[in-house]
Amino acid sequence: MAYFDSASSVPLHPVARQALLAALDEGWADPARLHREGRRARMLLDAARETAAEAAGCRPDELVFTSSGTRAVYDGMAGALAGRRRSGRHLLVSAVEHSCVLQSAAAHAADGGTVEEVGVDRTGRVDAGRYAGALRADTALACLQSANHEVGTEQPVAEVAEACRGAGVPLLVDAAQSLAWRPVDGGWSLLTASAHKWGGPPGVGLLAVRKGVRFAPRGPADERESGRAPGFPNIPAVLAAAASLRAVRQEAEGEAVRLRALVDRIRARVPEVVPDVEVVGDPVRRLPHLVTFSCLYVDGEALLHGLDRRGFSVSSGSSCTASTLVPSHVLRAMGVLSEGNVRVSLPAGTAAEDVERFLAVLPDTVGEVRGRLGAPLPGEEATSPAGAGRGASGAASATGPDAASAAPGVPAPERAPADGAERAGAGRAPAERAEPAEGAAPEAAGAEGPGAEEPALTVDALGRRCPIPVIELAKVIGEVPDGALVAVLADDEAARLDIPAWCAMRDQEYAGERPAERGAVYLVRRRA
């Protein structure tokens, strides 16, 4: 089995394992005590702190160990916001931050603060000038990740840190994905990281707070870890985390060059062997080991199961929101295709042969998922003359939950649900042309309303998850005249992202969105 999900977690580094086992015998005592065992434990804890601080680029007395990277973010944001409460309650974050940063921001807003998100371009990168322009006199804290966890794009931390310094605003940097490769550039004020991202044990996070930053720890505090991380420290885990961080840093320069070449191979080869793929993220300013791509007409969960059966462990979309029905907030902020999303993050030591095997099995895996979903073959969309093709009077098929028979080319629904096709709505039969579709407001469907253009055809995809609404749109777009509108009624949030993305990939015009009693109506104008 080839493990290609190191952005989620990395197996324990051999150095970490060795340090952990040794510290279990030496570092079990209370480091706050003055007896011999306590002094030995304190010595090990101080050594770990010095090692981690050197890697982070800060002083040892500026760094504390927390119970996780998420805990470090929560405590860092809460403490900085509380310490600068008199300066204001405005919090500035990028739209592609890790979910733990956005969750902390939501808690701040619920407590009466204000939160502002700075958008990104299609590569997932923040514009430093735009970020600087969003700083205000009442900004208490700014947050910017060093590199994105989903698409690998590196952020302009040094430029943003300079702007924050000029405005007198502390900058918190989430360095969970990049700290294993190099220190974070620029004059950041607070920094967080997570040991299991670089091969340390889970349950260890880093929080660095520069001297001079106004910081007020929230919640009960004790004498440990400068009052910022109360409780008895897990010295064996902390020592293993620090030792493995030093070890991976020593290997990082050479391994980064090697993995970057393998990722370049994936970025170049995937669009060649798989039709209708969008590779996302910055092609140059990125982490060396990570690449993300989205496959049109593919359900991400089904694709992951297919790759898993073929011996490859990858992830899809946001690893922290993969269990929800909401598309990745990162892909949404970028405005790129979300369906059929695959994140490949190569761990250190990945063999070139494993990458070639992945590239060999990917086309058939994608093809199988598309076949189960009844997706059109490449070149089939938007090619039929108006009025030709499927259905009486050239009417398009509209999807609906009460349909009784399967569409041509769509297999009957007795598949294994684990493939994800049943969950995505594959095998559901097309219904009659909507008049407009049930559930659409009259204005939304274009049937009535002042100035509302009448769609030539409406696809009812209520109750069906992407990529089914996009697949049905692709099947019928060629049945309307050039310049005519097709309306897609859908209640899957992913349609808001994937239908415009399909239009961009197919040179069709996305004409906007209209409200409906249930879901929304997405309008597409055919361009021959």
What does the main sheet amount to? 7 strands, mixed
Give the end-to-end Cα distance, rounded to a whole number of Å. Answer: 45 Å
Query: What general outline do the C-alpha atoms trace?
Result: globular
- For this structure, the quaternary state is single chain
Please give the order of strands in the largest beta sheet. 2-8-7-6-5-3-4
What is the gyration radius calculated from CA atoms? 26 Å
| Unreliable parts | 318-322, 383-451
Q: How many beta-strand elements?
A: 18
Give the percentage of residues in beta strands.
5-15%
Mean pLDDT: 86
Question: Please, how many helices?
Answer: 14
Helix fraction, binned, reads: 25-40%
Structural class per helix/strand content?
alpha/beta
Layout of helices and strands, plus pairs?
Layout: E1 2-3, H1 14-26, H2 36-56, E2 63-66, H3 69-83, E3 90-94, H4 99-110, E4 114-118, H5 128-133, E5 139-143, H6 157-167, E6 171-174, E7 190-194, E8 205-209, H7 235-273, E9 277-280, E10 290-295, H8 300-309, E11 312-313, H9 329-334, E12 341-345, H10 352-372, E13 398-399, H11 421-424, E14 430-431, H12 442-445, E15 457-460, H13 468-476, E16 485-490, H14 495-506, E17 509-515, E18 520-525
Parallel strand pairs: 1-11, 3-4, 3-5, 5-6, 6-7, 15-16
Antiparallel strand pairs: 2-8, 7-8, 9-10, 10-12, 13-14, 16-18, 17-18
Helix pairs in contact: 1-7, 2-7, 3-4, 7-10, 8-10
Name the descriptors.
globular; alpha/beta; 528 residues; seven-stranded mixed sheet
Write up this protein.
By secondary structure, the protein is an alpha/beta fold. It is built from 14 helices and 18 strands. The protein has helices at residues 14-26, 36-56, 69-83, 99-110, 128-133, 157-167, 235-273, 300-309, 329-334, 352-372, 421-424, 442-445, 468-476, 495-506, and strands at residues 2-3, 63-66, 90-94, 114-118, 139-143, 171-174, 190-194, 205-209, 277-280, 290-295, 312-313, 341-345, 398-399, 430-431, 457-460, 485-490, 509-515, 520-525. The strands form 5 sheets. The chain has a 7-stranded mixed sheet with strand order 2-8-7-6-5-3-4, with helices on both faces. The model is unreliable at 318-322 and 383-451 (pLDDT under 50).
